[in-house]
Amino acid sequence: MSFLRNCWYIAGWADEFVEGSMMARTFLSEPVVIFRDSKGALQGLQDRCPHRFVPLHLGRLQNDQIQCAYHGLKFDCTGACVHNPHGNGTIPRAARVRSYPMQERHGFAWIWMGEPHRADPSLICDFSPLDPEFFYVGKSYLHVMANYALETDNILDLSHIEFLHESSLGSNGVAQGSTEVVQDGETVYSKRSTSDEQLTPDLERLRGVPAGQRVDRWLDVRWNAPAVMLLETGLTPAGQPRSAGRAVHVAHVFTPETDATTHYWFGIAFPRALGEEGERLAKENIDWLSHPFTKEDMPMLEAQQATIGDKDFWSLKPVLLPSDAAAVRVRRTLDEMIKREQAESETPEQ
């Protein structure tokens, strides 16, 4: 499978990376080692020594340099070899590894897997509704044995919560809710609204809804390439306008590890203005959400991936339902972006 390369991918929660330690992760089938330098900035290097191809994360991080554990070559933050302890110390011209531009924003670590000179920080998607400066954020992570596009489909078509999550997130009115798909440039919105809905007891408790009260609910998802999504989920007493209700924001962000495995970070935010109550809600909600995501979504998607195998999704001629509109729009948008990027890379420079 081809990946979109000239875009910002999530590399993890920013607070996963602490000064003095290295973390190895694979993105787009490329091994990367990530660390914070002595100034606190995130650095990403190809996790493969060019000498005998040993993973650099097995080595030692010191003075913003990684020393390979096998033969002692040292590499700086640019990926250049700066020390050769052998012979007369001459550094071979090819002794360097790729460096990846990285940024830290809104509580996430972002990595650019494409051409470094095109890494424009202004292209990073807005996740300010989860910025830890203003919100308590409940955070979690799953390593899923499925293609990242299947994960995207899952979030863009939330009609499935009526069936897959009937005792937790769903109700018997979700699939019949009204839906709208809106595209603004290369950003796609999937908006689902339900009316006069009866929530599950757990959702009533977590959202502060009196037992048995009927509600109108909205589930609005914003998608940006390649697979970063922000969900606004809100509710109001049945028949009341949105302004009478309240909403929370949930991040669903996916980075392909390989063609068939995915990094999945998700989080939910509550304002710091709520004090200890906001902190409690963030922890309680993420602990609760982790169950349906881990025990219901993940097994379903992994079974789906096992069935599809290495076949092209469209070659299987999937039957399409009205609820697939947003996912189909996103797949076609992403396919076009990848196709355009590949065409540009094949065009010789003038």
TrEMBL record:
<keyword id="KW-0411">Iron-sulfur</keyword>
<keyword id="KW-0223">Dioxygenase</keyword>
<dbReference type="GO" id="GO:0051537">
    <property type="term" value="F:2 iron, 2 sulfur cluster binding"/>
</dbReference>
<protein>
    <submittedName>
        <fullName>Aromatic ring-hydroxylating dioxygenase subunit alpha</fullName>
    </submittedName>
</protein>
<dbReference type="GO" id="GO:0051213">
    <property type="term" value="F:dioxygenase activity"/>
</dbReference>
<feature type="domain" description="Rieske">
    <location>
        <begin position="8"/>
        <end position="111"/>
    </location>
</feature>
<dbReference type="Pfam" id="PF00355">
    <property type="entry name" value="Rieske"/>
</dbReference>
<dbReference type="InterPro" id="IPR044043">
    <property type="entry name" value="VanA_C_cat"/>
</dbReference>
<dbReference type="InterPro" id="IPR036922">
    <property type="entry name" value="Rieske_2Fe-2S_sf"/>
</dbReference>
<keyword id="KW-0408">Iron</keyword>
<keyword id="KW-0560">Oxidoreductase</keyword>
<dbReference type="Pfam" id="PF19112">
    <property type="entry name" value="VanA_C"/>
</dbReference>
<dbReference type="InterPro" id="IPR050584">
    <property type="entry name" value="Cholesterol_7-desaturase"/>
</dbReference>
<keyword id="KW-0479">Metal-binding</keyword>
<dbReference type="GO" id="GO:0046872">
    <property type="term" value="F:metal ion binding"/>
</dbReference>
<keyword id="KW-0001">2Fe-2S</keyword>
<dbReference type="InterPro" id="IPR017941">
    <property type="entry name" value="Rieske_2Fe-2S"/>
</dbReference>
